[in-house]
UniProtKB/TrEMBL annotation:
Coiled coil: 7-115
Keyword entries, A-Z: Coiled coil
Annotated Pfam families: CT398_CC, Zn_ribbon_9
Domain C4-type zinc ribbon as annotated: residue spans: 202-236
Residue ranges of domain CT398-like coiled coil hairpin in the record: 14-192
Classification via InterPro entries: CT398_CC_hairpin, Oxidative_Scav/Glycosyltrans, Zf-RING_7
The protein, known as: C4-type zinc ribbon domain-containing protein
Length: 242
């Protein structure tokens, strides 16, 4: 295939833009905060698990306190009723039975109130641990949000740079003859690099010096003939260093 030296030099511009695009893709994947965010997931999961566990524990204790309060109120209501009945009773036997029940209700009230106080103390301790867990979770979640925001900002900056490079590539590609562009794309898809500069006796495609015989063959080839790097397989663009 033949192509003017200018056309061949345009391939170097195109390759530079493709290299930039590949660099930006790697840069996007390797944003430092991504690794920090990944390492934070274990801490975040542990903080959530502790928070939710203490929340369930506190909810269970509060439900038990509510049940005890309800039972205590029922006993108090029963006690008030019996006190009214004993006040209106004219039968000593009935009065004695009501008094016995009042004594039982009094003991029951004391037991319920004592149990409720004990549970309230436990719930207070659980609440303190729950508040600590909530603060810890909030801190970790705040760090997560900051990392995600930083990643978003970095991605947006990279996207702008990539869009500019892609637009410039479109312009450069439009200047290259179709068959040469097709050869470049095919070579790049096969070898990972489409075009490389011959600098002195070194191919930038392989970063290796060409053998004297290879270099002589390439130097003797007409400037408008396409030649390839023996090491990388890329289109080798001869540039006048002067």
């Amino acid at each position: 295939m033949k192509a003017s030296p200018r056309q061949q030099r345009l391939l170097l511009d195109l390759q530079e833009l493709d290299t930039t695009a590949a660099r930006l893709r790697r840069k996007r994947e390797q944003i430092p905060q991504r690794a920090e965010l990944a390492s934070l997931q274990g801490e975040l999961s542990a903080a959530k698990e502790r928070f939710m566990g203490l929340q369930r524990e506190l909810d269970g204790q509060q439900a038990e306190i509510d049940r005890l309060e309800s039972d205590t109120q029922m006993v108090r209501d029963r006690k008030a009723r019996d006190e009214q009945l004993i006040a209106a009773s004219t039968s000593p036997k009935e009065a004695q039975a009501l008094q016995n029940e009042l004594d039982t209700l009094a003991r029951r009230t004391g037991e319920l109130e004592e149990r409720e106080l004990e549970l309230m103390e436990v719930a207070e301790q659980t609440k303190a641990r729950f508040d600590e867990a909530a603060a810890a979770l909030s801190g970790v979640d705040g760090r997560r949000a900051a990392l995600e925001a930083a990643i978003g900002e970095a991605e947006a900056a990279i996207a702008r740079e990539a869009a500019a490079a892609a637009e410039e590539r479109t312009g450069v590609a439009a200047e290259i003859q179709r068959d040469l562009l097709g050869l470049y794309e095919e070579t790049r898809s096969r070898n990972g690099i489409g075009a490389a500069r011959l600098r002195g006796n070194v191919s930038e495609g392989s970063n290796m010096a060409l053998a004297p015989a290879e270099l002589m063959t390439i130097r003797e080839t007409a400037p408008d003939e396409i030649v390839f790097c023996p090491g990388s397989g890329a289109i080798l663009v001869r540039v006048d260093e002067a």
